[in-house]
Amino acid sequence: MSGSPPDAGAPRVRFAPSPTGWLHVGGARTAYFNWLFARRHGGTVVLRIEDTDVERSSAASEQGVLDDLAWLGLDFDEGPHEGGPHGPYRQSERLGLYREAAERLREEAKAYPCFCCDEELEERRREALAAGRPPHYDGRCCALAPEERAARLAAGEPHSLRLKVVPREWRLDDLVRGPVVFPEGVVGDFVVLRSNGLPTYNFACAVDDTAMGITHVIRAEEHLPNTPRQLMVCAALGRAAPRYAHVPLILNRDRTKMSKREGQAAAAVGDWRRAGIVPEALLSYLALLGFHPGDEREVLSRAELLECFDLARVGRSGSIFDAGKLRWMNAHVLHHAGGAELARWAGEALPAAARALPAAARERLLEAVRGNLATLLDLPGELAPFLDERPALEPDAAAVLAAGDARALCGELAAALEGLAEWSEEGVKSTIRTVGARLGRRGRELFEPARAALTGRVHGPELPRVAGLIGRERCVRRLRDAAAGRS
RNA sequence: GGCGCUAUCGUCUAGGGGUCCAGGACAGGUGGUUCUCAGCCAUCAGACCGGGGUUCGAAUCCCCGUAGCGCUACCA
C-alpha cells in the first residue's frame, strides 16, 4: 500500500522543539505529521527538547510547549517526562554524549580545534563576500602545525571544534521532495562544538537522531539546506543517517515564513486556543494545509487522517495561513460535535451553571446551541437564555418587543402555553401556531417576538426546542414579563 | 553573491500527456430556506508565471528565463 513506510520495521520519529518561545502553528503541524506517520505505522514518537541555546531557552517555555502539545492531544512514547531507553531527552542533559562524539572525531582527525574569534571570522566573511567568494571558513586552523596547535591548546586558548568537510557532493532522497543534490564545495568546515563546550544544532541533531535510532526525520523545509551538514556528521561518526521528509513552510500573507520572532498575529497555538478554537479544528486545518487526502473531503478528524496520512501526498509549496478558513473549520467542527465533546473542549470556559447540570441535560443543551457557535467564546452568550433566570434583553430584541402589539401577543402565548396539556416541542410548536392563527400572525411576526421574550435575542436555535429546554414555568414567566413590559 | 526549494482561481488545493474550454473547499456575489442566523441548500464569478522545445496532442515531460521563499551563525 502506498502509505507504508519506505523501510522495513516500525518507524521511530521525533519532534524536536527548542523551548525558546511558544509552540508555533508550523511546529504543531510538524508534530502532527510526525505523530500521524508513527501512529499509522505502529511506530514510536520521541519528544526531544533542543535547548542548547542557553540564552534563549527557558523552563517556562518548555512547559508552555508541552502544554500546547497536550492540549492538541499529541502524545509521545519517549521524552523528558515519558522516559525511555534513549534518554535523557533534553539536549542540555546530553552534553557528555556530544563531547564524546566530538572527541572521537578529533582523535580520528575528522575535526580540529579552531582558535579564530568571532570578529576575525566576521571580517573574513565580509571580505569573501565582497570579493565574490563563498563566505566559507577558510580552514586556516586546520592547517596549523601540530606543535602550534598543541601549544595553544595547552595554553588554554579558547577554541571551537570544526568538522573537516570531505569534498564530495551530498544527496538525499527526500520523502516529500524527491532527490536533492548538494554539489561539492558549498559548505565549509563548520563548528560542531562551540567554544563554550555546547554543541551546535547540526551536530547535536545528527548525534541524537542516530543515537536515538530515529528512522524518519519529518521537519520543516527550512532545514533542508542543513541536511548535508547533518549527513556529514553522520558519515564522520560512521552512523547510518535517517530518512528525511521536509514539509513546506507555513507563510504569512506576504508569503514570508510565518515567524514567531516577528510577532506576527496568531502564529502561536496558544493564541488560537485562547480564541476559542478547538484542537480538533486546528489540527484538521493544519494537516490539510499541505496534505491532501486524495478525495474531496475538506475536514478530516484525527481518526480519518490516521487512515490516509501519507508523506507522498504532502505538497511541496509553502502555504499561507488563512485564519478565515480556520474559523470556518472550527465552526464546522463545533456544529457536528457531540455535547460531551463540547463540554470537554469548553472545560473551565463553560459557565458554572452549565457545569452544574446533570451530564445528559448539559449535553442536550450544548447540542441545541452548537449550530450558533463559531468559537468556544460564543458559548456563554448562547447559553445565557437557558441558564440565567432573567437573560439580558439585547437591543434588537427590545426593538422587536416594542413594535406593534408584540407584547399583547406574548400575553396570549403565555396563557396558551400555561394551559398546554403536555409540555413537548411538538406541543409548543402547535400551540404557538394556534395562537398565531387566532391573531392573524404567522412566520416571522409570530416567532420573532416570542423568541425575543423567551431569550432576549433575535437569533438562536429553533423556537420549540428553545422552549423545551427553558421549561414551561420559565417560558410562561418570561412571556408574562414581556407582555407587561417588565423585560 | 552562492546553494537549495517552489510556482494552478484572492487563499488552501485536485490534477502526473488526451476524459480539463481545469474539479473541490474558504472568502466574495446572487437566490432560496412551512421563525431567526455566523447555520443549511442552490447558483454565479474566479487560475494553469513567461518563453522555447518534445509530441498528433502539455496544466501535466524537458530546457531557459522570471518571481517568491529558505539557508548560507560558535540560532534552531
What are the low-pLDDT stretches, counting only 5+ consecutive residues below 50?
1-6
The global form is elongated
Question: What's the total helix number?
Answer: 21
Describe the strand arrangement of the main beta sheet, using strand numbers: 3-4-7
The portion of residues assigned to helices is 40-55%
Number-wise, the strands total: 11
C-alpha-based Rg, rounded? 31 Å
Question: Which class do the helix and strand fractions yield?
Answer: mainly alpha
β-sheet strand percentage: 5-15%
Largest beta-sheet details? 3 strands, antiparallel
| Oligomeric state, counting identical vs distinct chains | single chain
Report the mean per-residue pLDDT as an integer.
91
Distance between the termini: 65 Å
What labels describe this entry?
mainly alpha, three-stranded antiparallel sheet, two-stranded parallel ribbon, 46% helix, RNA-binding
Walkthrough of the structure:
It contains 21 helices and eleven strands. It has helices at 25-40, 59-72, 95-107, 118-130, 146-154, 201-211, 227-237, 269-274, 279-288, 302-308, 323-335, 339-346, 352-355, 359-369, 379-387, 395-402, 406-418, 425-439, 444-455, 463-470, 472-483, and strands at residues 12-15, 44-47, 111-114, 160-163, 170-174, 178-182, 191-193, 216-220, 243-247, 250-251, 319-320. The chain has a three-stranded antiparallel sheet with strand order 3-4-7. The longest helix is centred in the first third of the chain and has 16 residues, at 25-40. It binds one RNA strand of 76 nucleotides through helix 4, strand 4, strand 6, strand 7 and helix 6.
